[in-house]
Amino acid sequence: MRFKSSDPNTDIAHPNGQRGVKKPAVEKQTIEKSVAEEPKKNSISKDEQIGERLKDVIINHRKGLQIMYGETEAELDESLEVPIKRGEEMARKLITMGCNIEIAKNLALLTLYDVTVLIDDSDSMITEENGQRKKTLIRFIDHITEICLMAKECGIFAMRFMNSGGGKNNWTGKSQEYLDHHSYGGVTRIGTELKRKILDKFVIGNPNQSKPLLVLIVTDGAVEGERKGHLKKVIQGCVNEREAACKGRDAVKFQFSCIGNDPGATQLLVDLDEDPDLGESIDVLPVEFDLECLFTEKWFILPKILLGAILPDVRPPHLNSLAIP
């Protein structure tokens, strides 16, 4: 879904000349003043807040989740007992780390999901930009792991690569050694490998799916080695299959992020973001939000990555207002 600005007069142009995602035009001084004047909130005042948030999303926003978690108050109380407890602990920890309280409550929604990551491990990940892309990838995986580990003991449910076999299940550790020793090479067959390594195993091939799946796809290039439109066909086919299998259209969501400055990757994200047929199922990290900023702007970028496909209407505060030194 497109990241919308509250200011209709401010557009950011994509490198290819297209009009891009709108971004609030707010003076830095004004932002700093408003943040300084805002009362500090560093605790969850009532334990019920997390439970209310989870139930609200299931009942009012992602109604398809009622298939897995229940429809009545009694059913939700029973199925959400563990997620609520985990979510309360998660939100409190996030707040102590400097996360905004509302974002912390929203990130607790990840207790409802299994999170998988599909990584583009084509050779450009190590040959382009003097190896900076791989460094950014490591930082990306570590930040995602940190949040997922708060949501669930298993951390990242599954991590797979587009060109290499294997991968990891229940990933909870630091990724540098693992990704440093990984063998990079090949092309970017996103649709083909998404279906083969993620969807066929954990979604379409899983008739007993009991939790919705959030699929994070991170790439550094345009699609190669498969027919044009195949990625769209794979996504639509998966969503339709889940609906036919009585799991609901909310059983799987997709989020796309780009590493590096490859024009093809940029165009891929633009095309996905502007496709009206996919908007219900996917979210795209706006191309001007550089993943290299994950360290300094983590509480802005991470919620967009992890919540955009789940809560497309959630707009994190302005980039500069959540910067962490």
From TrEMBL:
Residues 1-47 are annotated as: Disordered. Transmembrane segments: none annotated. Residues 24-47 have a biased composition (Basic and acidic residues). This is VWFA domain-containing protein. InterPro entries: vWFA_dom_sf.
